[in-house]
Amino acid sequence: MRIITGIYKGRHFDIPRTFKARPTTDFAKENIFNVLNAYIDFEDATALDLFAGTGSISLELLSRGCNSVVSVEADREHANFIRQCTTKLGTDKCLLIRGDVFRFVKSCHQQFDFVFADPPYALPDLEKIPNLIFQHQLLKPNGVLVFEHGRGNDFSQHPHFVDHRAYGSVNFSLFKAPENKEV
Question: Is 83 part of any domain?
């Protein structure tokens, strides 16, 4: 796993073979971040990485200048790996929460400029996640949600949907919060 660009550009981290998580491919990650440059300025942004897995997206967000990144990951081994990576980078801008994403979303009182969610594609409640993000108002006005999912999901009818991108078997749906606080 490598960081594509920013202050930590080119840094590599070896993912243990025992991991169940599949990091977003470098190709897909680089392309979706190129698309996101039209939607958000990561410099000094606040970000939330749900289902953080290996921490690949969290590390990329930190490298691109986010002021703070909250990473939520339920698996103990994966959370420890993310903690080790941020320690190696020497950053204190990542708050790691080891816990259930659905519980976190329901209890979170913070808003973010950017939310990235990459749940396991077979997760039973996968299609409910974008609605939960908006229902619990986790995005600031004009905030962006990127939702990674498999081919079988279509969010184009969602009221906050703005774009869909596919890179191989990796699909991203982009959503944007309205300018005002009404969602």
Answer: yes
Q: Tell me, yes or no, whether 130 lies in a domain.
A: yes
Q: Which domain holds residue 63?
A: 26-176
* Non-local CB neighbours of 37 within 8 Å, separated by 6+ positions: none
Tokens of 96: 């790691």
pLDDT average, residue stretch 109-135: 94
- pTM across the whole model: 0.94
Percent of the chain scoring above 90 in pLDDT: 84
Neighbours of 16 (CB within 10 A): 10
What is the domain-level CATH number for residue 52?
3.40.50.150
Q: Which segments of 124-168 are extended strands (E)?
A: 139-149, 161-167
Q: Residue 114, Cβ neighbours under 10 Å: how many?
A: 24
> Is residue 10 in some structural domain?
no
Inside any domain, residue 132 = yes
pLDDT digits (tens, 9 = 90+) for 83-96: 999 999 999 999 99
Average pLDDT along the chain: 93
DSSP characters over 100-118: -HHHHHHH----EEEEEE-
